[in-house]
Amino acid sequence: MKYYLIIISIAISQLLTAQSGNTFTVGMSSGLGMSKNTTLGENKQLDNLSNIHTALNFSYGIKLPKNLSCDLNFSLDNISYFPYPIDIGRWTTGQYLSSNLGAGLRYKNPIKTNFFSLGLSGGFKLMRNGQSSYQAYTGSYLSKTNYQFEGTANPFMRLQFGYEFPLKNKNLIGIDLSFNGSFRPIYSMEFNYTDSGPSSHGTYTYSGNSIHLGVHYTWTKNKKNADIETFLKDSVNRKEAKKIVTINNRFQSSKAVLIQLHQGGFMNQSKIRNISDNVFKNASAPSSSTRLNATIGWKNNWSFQPGVSIDSYFLWLRKNFSGLSGSSLFNLFTVDLGMQRRMLSFPKTNRYLCNVNGGISFSYLSGSGGGGGSVTSFDYNTNQVILSYNYSYQYNNKIFPLAYIGVSKDLRLSNHILFTIAYRHQFGLSKGMLIPFNYTAENQATVFTQIRVNGNADCLSFGLTYRFNNKR
Fold first, then answer.
1. Which of 111, 165, 363, 412 has the highest Cβ tally under 10 A?
2. Distances from the Cα of 103 to the Cα of 69, 72, 432, angstroms
3. 262, burial (CB in 10 Å: exposed 0-12, middle 13-18, buried 19+)
4. Which domains does the chain have, with CATH numbers?
5. 472 residues of the chain, pLDDT tens digit each
């Protein structure tokens, strides 16, 4: 026990006496791993299944002598797996989210102005208990799979190669290739397939061994340290020099122009009228929104903020019906006319709390569409349909007037590039549109009703901002 305490105390002391070469890195990566079947079917060869990893990675690098650093790593890893080992239901995917915690050593070798790095790390994949099952049926076949994830701390090792390019602000942007090896399987799966001919079955395991390609951005503080050294030459003490540099970096001109591109989750609030059987959701339904807007500085931290977006609207089933999630209704093209106020909490230090914005919008729909779906109880004997539904619409030049309010926060990546987190609530100013809709649940009488959509929604988005004209 005392040895663990000694190691922890050394690590804490190193963090408290952080050298100027310490870094913080954020990155994204995508990887591919293959599961392997361990039992073959009777007359059909079962293929291996692909697994796609999408991860958000964080790392704190502690500078060591001789181009070495100790990296403390954390990542969120989403695994997309494809349930069926043969060509049925390939469009269906399952999702499993885990977190990785680890540490390792990295060697960085300068190549002219760039850097090549080689890293070896290890840690634990923190998993939770989980289970999912999938079934597909037609008149000629029945396919069933069952996945099992066991909650445990799964040890892993990672070998990583990287190549980094310095930017004008002395921070680094890079690409990396890594090989992950897991010491225990991530999941096991059982599969059964029956049709008019020979049947097939098998068991699968996914070890977690995978290859990943990613990009990352590293804050080095090299430019900040160089600016501090410049002020020290003017007989300013180090504490005051740090304060001046920090205030200068926070500065944003009242005449600055910013262009922002956002991608986010869109929670539309469509309502189904005059029903009481709780078959369909009336509340928020997740979909997506892509937004492009400009922030044009005016005066006293006020800005004009025009923008455009494409917002998706979905219809979702209540959770008491397993299987099908929902259907896409339509996409709306929206134009925003708004204002933004940059809230400076301490003007003398250029420190600001957030941006507050609001305005009016006009959403536009032209054309026609429709859809339908069903949820089936996969009973070997009856194959009973327990829910089916249909809807359709046809509108030309339909315009929704909206009002919105929102709040956002910019995190500076460089003098011109910002990372933005934004929340927006919008509400309709008209009755909106009514979409004819009918459904049949559990062999009951068909219900005829309407879906009301007037633009009520919430949106949480993330994006990048480029800032022009930031001169004093």
1. 363
2. 11, 5, 54
3. buried
4. 19-219 (2.40.160.20), 225-250 (no CATH), 252-468 (2.40.160.20)
5. 444 444 445 444 544 444 457 889 999 999 999 888 876 555 555 677 889 999 999 999 998 988 899 999 999 999 988 877 765 555 567 788 899 999 999 999 999 889 999 999 999 999 988 887 777 665 566 777 888 998 889 999 999 999 999 887 788 999 999 999 999 999 998 888 777 666 777 888 999 899 999 999 998 876 666 666 676 666 677 777 777 777 777 888 888 999 999 888 777 777 777 666 566 655 455 678 899 999 999 988 899 999 999 987 776 655 444 444 456 677 888 999 999 999 977 777 888 889 999 999 998 877 676 666 655 544 445 555 566 666 676 676 688 899 999 999 998 887 788 989 999 999 888 877 777 877 776 667 787 877 777 888 889 898 899 999 887 7
What is the three-class DSSP state of 347? Answer: helix
Tell me the sheet residues that pair with 29.
55, 214
35 residue type, one letter: S
- Side by side, the strands of the sheet bearing 36-37 are 36-37, 200-206, 187-195, 141-149, 130-137
CA 196 distance to own-chain centroid: 43
**How crowded is residue 351: how many other Cβ atoms within 10 Å of its Cβ?**
12
384 residue type, one letter: Q
Check if the beta carbon of residue 99 is closer than 8 Å to that of residue 74.
Answer: yes
* Contact criterion met (CB below 8 Å) for 79 and 73: no
